[in-house]
Amino acid sequence: MAAATELADARPALFTRVLPVAAMVLVALNDHVLKGAGLLPGWLTGKLSDFAGLYFAPLLVAELWTLARPTCEARSVVRRVTWAALGVGLLFTAIKTSPPADRLYEAVLTALLRHPASNTVDPTDLIALVMLAVAIWDARRLVHSP
Question: What is the pLDDT of residues 74-85, one digit of tens each?
């Protein structure tokens, strides 16, 4: 039991840090307050959620993965963030370029949230995929910092 506690204490906090949590809060504020309020142009609020979401999502997925299957080995942690980024990137690419994938995504989200969800098919949003590399870089920096 003590070994499991030590492993948990050594595990890096990928998502539960200020920047990833702030990115998640930004997505929530942007999607529920800023979009349509007229405070910012629509193109900006659309991209804002994409950039912030693609930064925090792989970190969140990898941290949940690490909670389920603990590891503190730096290479394993970064590998998990990389795989999570790949999965998030594939899903994002599908819903931004394919109307059938978009409809399925909206239906699943609506069912899960019990509230109508919408997504816009917009291939120009793919520019935000760069944030996946930022998430991987951030995880690599985190696990290799003293």
Answer: 899 999 999 999
Give yes or no for a contact between 4 and 70, defined as CB atoms under 8 angstroms apart: yes
- Token pair listed for 69: 């299957």
Q: Find where tokens 């290799």 sit.
A: 144
Total structural domains within the chain: 1
- Give CA–CA dist 79/23, Å, rounded: 22
Q: Are 139 and 64 in contact (CB under 8 A)?
A: no
Two structure tokens written together for 52: 């912030």
Show the tokens assigned to 11. 């595990």
CA gap 67, 65 in Å, rounded: 5
For tokens 């942690």, the residue is 77
Residue 11 banded pLDDT, cuts 50, 70, 90: low
What one-letter code names the amino acid at 138? D
Containing structural domain, residue 66: 2-143
Condensed to tens digits (0 to 9), the pLDDT of residues 94-120 reads 999 999 999 999 999 999 989 898 899
Kindly tell me the sign of the dihedral angle through the C-alpha atoms of 66, 70, 72, 76.
negative
